[in-house]
């Protein structure tokens, strides 16, 4: 009888441990962009209008283990005063094994304070592949109760990590595609060995409106008339 009770106790303990593990794995964020736990930086709401943008191409990035693990891919590509907003477009993720899509996370911060803002493009609690994930524009941090990332003398540090590590010391997810746009104050591109993702654009490329196209056409017509007139005079 004593052996039976001991076996039952061990079985219940095993179930509790398994239940805790499942709960931890299922503890996904309720929004794709959230302040990291412990982020106590003060919001810079008075200076949240960006004057510069940098777009990074995260295609080919890999998330390996839990936050802060030395196996994780990091990237340092941007300097400036502060990050005021983030947007993402056409993000595609493919998981490995039992890893969930919602566990692939991009952590933003600085080398001094690495854990400030988490970006989780997918909220799908399942493994597999997903593409076309987008924020539909820039999400202002302070407008969403997330402190700006103050850089100052520190660069922006990115870390690709897993919210739950299914494959220790091995890839959990591959970032197949995606452009991440950082909006901020006086942002500049920093290249070098620490920048392990591609610089897609140091600033947004302005699009011409119909009025702009009309002005360009009139300008070209004016140049053509002037060149023709000079030819006739000569």
What does this molecule look like?
The chain is α+β, with helices and mostly antiparallel strands and 234 residues long. Helix content is 21%, strand content 32%. The strands form two sheets. Strands 2, 3, 5, 8, 9, 10, 12 and 14 form an eight-stranded antiparallel sheet that branches. It starts with a helix and ends with a helix.
Brief account:
By secondary structure, the chain is of the alpha+beta class.
Element order, helices and strands?
HEEEEEEEEEEEEEEH
- Total number of domains: 1
Helical content stands at 10-25%
Strand content: 25-35%
Computed over alpha carbons, the radius of gyration is: 24 Å
> How many angstroms separate the termini?
116 Å
Structure class: alpha+beta
**How many strands?**
14
Largest β sheet strand count, sense and barrel closure: 8 strands, antiparallel
Gross geometry: globular
**CATH class bucket:** Mainly Beta
The CATH topology is given as Jelly Rolls
Q: What is the count of helical runs? A: 2
Average pLDDT, all residues: 79
Poorly predicted spans: 1-23, 205-227
The CATH architecture term is Sandwich
